[in-house]
């Protein structure tokens, strides 16, 4: 699908490229991007499904859109991706994928109808004084001076923002605004985050600025994104013969570089502790997802804090692969992974999933978000930021439509909690969140 001023080209089926039936494809990573690559190869490019191989290190597809129940530890959700009306490539795909909830409808049709009948909006964006409404009241609270700074920020050429922090571009007055609270807690930005990255986010979501204060800009799936998006897409691909190879850790893609042309010649990987390789031909295609927002994730549980001792700045499976690819070129054309992964201390965040059926807790949730989470409809409408915690963990929490997992007991409620400052002691639990057990995290939230 081309970029165009209308939908003339969007509704036209693409021509099948010559020789497509001879092509094979190797897709490294089974996140949403990798699965979408396989989908378009099957539907639009005419590549046979059995000649498409998705190479995945984990025993489950989905990448950062995962959502699982571990019988020994409970529910895991590493967060969800923000959904947008203008994900043209994604919606063009999901209009042809049968939904998990109702196979007679596509994922797109089910999602569209769900959000039409149960539109998303928040009745309490932030709390203060232990659960009292902070009354942000849909106000951005940006002063005239800060508005001018933000406008200048938006218009600044990208080359002038390289290697600059957000705090280099705006001053303290901006950081005191509600807009910064909305922005920081929704997108996990810090004052020291990349100014260039924030500019790109501003451009990407400019049409949603008015809907950020109460989350009317957002849409949500019926269940977690793994069950509502990944599973139906995976089932579609399997029905077309696409091969999923799990337990494969790709360590490098070897390139032959001559006269400025780069050709992938082999894929080096390990499986079951044994190093192997796939030799590539001119009829082979290779797709690589470089980097990951959940690489090197560490897990705790109810009685144990996560073990962070093995974390290394710049390390991680996806980062290591990207770096090895970059080392083969001299012109920087494969990018700079160090800019994304070399400072864990300033880029980490932490989340927890809380499961409860305690009536006292349910009533507290109802008092704050003004909705009963057991009704199966929009509950918080997005994150609720705890302003009391701004000098501690700086927590936000959310409850999506319940049950969030199809097999979840109907009287149970799942709460997703996350914090921006994992190195600061809590307000009630005098420990950094990263050093806390699941029980202690729940105590701090309550």
- SSE string: EHEEEHHEEHHHHHEEEEEHHHEHEEEH
Q: What's the total count of β strands?
A: 15
Task: Assign the CATH architecture of the domain at 20-100 and 223-288.
Answer: 3-Layer(bba) Sandwich
Largest sheet: 6 strands, mixed
Q: How many angstroms separate the termini? A: 48 Å
CATH topology of the domain at 20-100 and 223-288: FAD/NAD(P)-binding domain
Instruction: Quickly count the helices.
Output: 13
Binned, the helix content reads 25-40%
How are strands sequenced across the largest beta sheet? Answer: 6-5-13-14-15-12
- Indicate the structural class: alpha/beta
The unreliable regions are none
Specify the CATH class of the domain at 20-100 and 223-288. Answer: Alpha Beta
Rg over alpha carbons: 23 Å
Q: Could you name the CATH homologous superfamily of the domain at 20-100 and 223-288?
A: FAD/NAD(P)-binding domain
Shape: globular
Mean pLDDT: 94
Give the amount of beta strand, in percent.
15-25%
């Amino acid at each position: 699908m081309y970029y165009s001023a209308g939908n003339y080209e969007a509704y036209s089926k693409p021509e099948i490229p010559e020789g497509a039936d001879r092509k094979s494809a190797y897709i490294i990573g089974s996140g949403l991007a990798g699965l979408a690559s396989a989908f378009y190869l099957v539907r639009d490019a005419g590549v046979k499904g059995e000649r498409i191989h998705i190479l995945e290190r984990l025993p489950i597809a989905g990448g950062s859109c995962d959502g699982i129940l571990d019988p020994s530890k409970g529910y895991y959700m590493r967060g969800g991706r923000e959904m947008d009306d203008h994900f043209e490539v994604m919606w063009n795909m999901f209009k042809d994928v049968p939904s998990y909830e109702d196979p007679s409808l596509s994922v797109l049709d089910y999602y569209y109808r769900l959000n039409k009948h149960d539109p998303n909006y928040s009745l309490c964006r932030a709390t203060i004084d232990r659960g009292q409404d902070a009354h942000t009241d849909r106000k951005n609270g940006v002063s005239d001076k800060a508005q001018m700074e933000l406008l200048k920020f938006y218009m600044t050429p990208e080359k002038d923002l390289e290697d600059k922090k957000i705090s280099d571009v705006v001053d303290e007055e901006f950081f005191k605004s509600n807009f910064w609270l909305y922005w920081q807690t929704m997108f996990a930005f810090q004052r020291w985050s990349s100014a260039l990255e924030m500019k790109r986010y501003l451009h990407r979501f400019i049409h949603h600025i008015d809907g950020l204060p109460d989350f009317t800009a957002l849409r949500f799936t019926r269940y977690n994104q793994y069950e509502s998006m990944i599973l139906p897409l995976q089932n579609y691909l399997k029905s077309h013969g696409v091969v999923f190879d799990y337990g494969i850790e790709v360590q490098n893609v070897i390139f032959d570089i001559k006269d400025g042309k780069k050709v992938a010649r082999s894929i080096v990987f390990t499986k079951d502790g044994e190093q192997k390789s796939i030799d590539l031909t001119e009829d082979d295609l290779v797709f690589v997802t470089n980097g990951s927002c959940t690489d090197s994730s560490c897990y705790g549980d109810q009685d144990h804090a996560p073990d962070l001792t093995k974390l290394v700045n710049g390390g991680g499976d996806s980062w290591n692969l990207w770096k090895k690819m970059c080392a083969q070129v001299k012109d920087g054309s494969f990018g700079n992974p160090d800019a994304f992964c070399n400072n864990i201390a300033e880029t980490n965040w932490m989340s927890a999933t809380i499961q409860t059926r305690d009536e006292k807790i349910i009533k507290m949730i109802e008092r704050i978000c003004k909705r009963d989470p057991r009704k199966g409809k929009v509950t918080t409408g997005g994150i609720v930021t705890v302003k009391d915690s701004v000098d501690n963990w700086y927590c936000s929490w959310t409850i999506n439509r319940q049950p969030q997992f199809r097999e979840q007991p109907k009287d149970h409620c799942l709460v997703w909690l996350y914090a921006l400052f994992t190195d600061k002691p809590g307000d009630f639990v005098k420990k950094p969140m990263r050093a806390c057990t699941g029980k202690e995290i729940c105590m701090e939230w309550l």
